[in-house]
Design goal:
The protein is α+β, with helices and mostly antiparallel strands. The chain contains ten helices and 16 strands. It is 24% helix and 24% strand. Helix 5 packs across helix 7 and helix 8 packs across helix 10. The structure holds succinic acid and cobalt (II) ion. Succinic acid binds next to strand 10 and strand 11.
Length: 391
Amino acid sequence: MANDTPLRLLGGLSAAEFLRDVWQRRPLLIRGAFPDFQCPLEPDELAGLACEEGVESRLVEEHGADGPWQVSHGPFDEATFARLPERDWTLLVQAVDHYVPEVAELLDHFTFLPRWRLDDIMISYAPPGGSVGPHVDQYDVFLLQGSGRRRWQLGGKVPDEAPIIAGIDLRILEHFAVEPGDDWVLEPGDMLYLPPGWAHHGVSQSDDCLTLSVGFRAPSADEAITSFADYLGEQLPPSRRYADPGMAPPADPGELDDAAIARMRRLILDTLDDPAQLAQWFGRVMTQPKYVDQLVSRETATPVEDLVAALQDGEELRRSPGSRFAWHALDATRATLFADGDGIECPLPLARALAADTPLDAELLPLPGAAELLAGLLDAGSLYWACDEEE
Ligand code: SIN
Ligand code: CO
């Protein structure tokens, strides 16, 4: 797909136009983004997922038994759903793309963004009146209406310190004023893109309201600095420290003077300013799995010759749902393949193939190091044999 092809999904904008003018800048309503959209999930199936151990889910009740805007966390049981009123509640299930392949397939439409920016596809179900209240997310999100109708209202961009209602488990804005014109009812296949920091409020208008949130995360400066400093710190020799050879005698021995501050600043900035280490750290954090325990490693290492024989017999490997891959070139021929928080140096074409949708079959074997790499990823749980897939 050329970057200048107009896309229905982006309301007739090309990927390049969307990224230049809309992404991270302003909301965009796209009517009929997915024409004749058939939601890959029914409300009952979503409720079923929310009853499973290990699936992250929340229930928001606007008029809860224990107070307004009550939040409870799954797994739930049938009794929970049986006691819920006719309206004004929402069930939200995270990472449905990990469990329902037809939901994961929707991600194929979002390749105009780097895959490592993706968080997950969350799906919510709400009877009429159900919402999570007006709020702000630090998150880019494409809100795709799956079935039924939801009214979305936007309240403009709000500052970090906008007051939120105290004493409840949800971050709901104390003040929410709808911007003129930013008030729409979305039908199945309609989609609303929201950049981080925009106040929004979505209320179900029907019995079958399912909304899919395709969410993209970005690490905060707070998380990034702490995490990069930790990563680098493990590799720094103890001799690298504050040093002050040749300093002038202090005017006052009690003073922490500007020259000392400048030396400390140089130490920190020079140590952090290491693009090669930064690439290694960034690839690792951005490919960390969302749920680490979903990554099931093998107890015994796969012999490389067994893996080669199986591939030559026509077996195929698949990427595990929820596994994350990315690559970064080291030079013209070598790259680091990042897989589920790990970094592995390998030939560039191999890293590229692993981080793409390329089938993982015998055709990869001629690439040097392919068999060893695949065996390692299989043992780590990032790959699995297609023939082991549950029916
Ligand atoms: C919802 O699906 O009800 C909420 C999604 C959001 O506002 O981020
Ligand atoms: Co939101």
